From TrEMBL, chain A:
It is found in: Cell membrane; Membrane. Keywords: Cell membrane, Membrane, NAD, Quinone, Translocase, Transmembrane, Transmembrane helix, Ubiquinone. NDH-1 is composed of 14 different subunits. Subunits NuoA, H, J, K, L, M, N constitute the membrane sector of the complex. GO terms for biological process: aerobic respiration. The chain crosses the membrane at residues 6-29, 79-100, 112-133, 154-177, 183-202, 231-255, 267-288, 300-319. Belongs to the complex I subunit 1 family. This is NADH-quinone oxidoreductase subunit H. The keyword Membrane applies. It comes from the Bacteria.
From TrEMBL, chain B:
It comes from Actinospica durhamensis. Pfam families: Oxidored_q3. Its EC number is 7.1.1.-. Its main location: membrane. One of its GO terms (cellular component) is plasma membrane. This is NADH-quinone oxidoreductase subunit J.
Amino acid sequence: MSSLSWWLEVALRIVVIFAAFLVVPLVVGQMEHKAMAHMQGRLGPMEAGGFHGWAQLIADGVKFAQKESVVPDAADRTVFQIAPAVALIPYLLALLVIPIGPGTQVGVALDLGLFFALAVMGLAVIGPLMAGWSSGNKYSLLGGLRSAAQLMAYELPMLLSAASVAMAAGTLSLPGILDAWHWYWLPWQLIGGFVFFTAGLAELQRPPFDMPVADSELIFGAFTEYTGLRFALFLLAEYAGIVVLCLLTSVLYLGGWHGPFAEQHLGWVWTLVKTFLLAFVVIWLRVSYPRLRADQLQKFAWTVLIPLSLAQLAITGVVRVL
Amino acid sequence: MATHSYLSPTGVEIAFVLVGLVVLGSGLLVVTLKNLVHAALWLIVCMGGIGIEYLLLGAEMVAWIQVLIYGGAVIVLFLFGLMLTKAPIGRTEELDVAHRWPAVLVGLGAAGTLVTVTVQAYQHTWFEPRDALALGSSEGLGTALFHYWVLPFEALSVLLLAALVGAIALSRARREDDGPDELPGEAQA
């Protein structure tokens, strides 16, 4: 392959991933607006853009961009300002290694893709902690404290259940895991999938694990003092996190581009369908589930999820050896 | 091998030295800054830099473990501890400890020993970074770890378990000492 076409390919991949990074979270956000509204007997946004308010989030983005960006006097300026970037960029990096189709339909086919994705997702959680501490606001600090306690409890089950899939496939490469995938992995890795998805929700602080941003207690947790574009970046990070979590769950536990038919040509469609179904579940949970209290959160992680993920590891090991 | 010289460095070596300088600088900031949370945040840079060094040496698996465990989990633990106790915005003056200079001496001594030992042991050995790639992959590392180094690995896990049990025992013992000070409901918990 000539050097020029290589560079072209790299540039094209980066552009496609960046575009997906900017667009797909907005689609999920719009889906949340509409699905939540209909579940609550409302219509949701109907005006912006004409057809069923499809441009609502673009209008929101324009609004956020026009607002003044305020840094409180008591805040730690530098940390306060770079926190949104720390929260957002890791999800972009994670998107790079997740395959959406067979063969070369992946940003970078990393040998340790699963490890890389989990490592950068672990970095993203530092953003809210930085925001909570640097805001100089006790509600923000409490929010940061709560998210740190939550993260420490939910990181372990997430890693253990991901390790189960890696054990089943015998590789840490995400395309490699999908190549090894068979339909019977669905029941085999079911518990792990449940643990991974639940722990991921907790890591993203989505309901019912949204105690760090509980609006009735802490205003908006670590993000209370943020305004304008930086606040919008935190929101974007939340939805990008949903996209990455749903993509990873569908790749690891639901077979990614595998489907009943047309796998080779339309594999990416299967990935997207599964991802959006999972994203719908995320939204559904927000509308239908009450928020867990701090002690319930911890208890759920340590007494339910971690034993379950250990059981999944044992099941995987036994089936592998048999 | 005599064909390799340190006087005509390759791109990897230059990058290695530059990242090493970043690691050294951020490490110095971690121990000298008066602002505790800033120090913890610079520790992320330091850990990330070490991760990049591992990557440059071809140890991909160790690099991502470094980012996952030290860059992510340990820092979250640090920040949680800082926020839980006290994390004032601004400088913390009471950080000036009396044994600062002995600590510097011990640090320099340890670093000197490590550098001397490493240089003495490997000064005539040449590692080609590209040849190390197979060793640094998950397969290579797993094979090495569980074929040849299984005993030290298990010894380390026993050590960690002992440390865990010790930490629990220490914290329990102290609680029994201040028994009368406990809140009524806490005794059962």
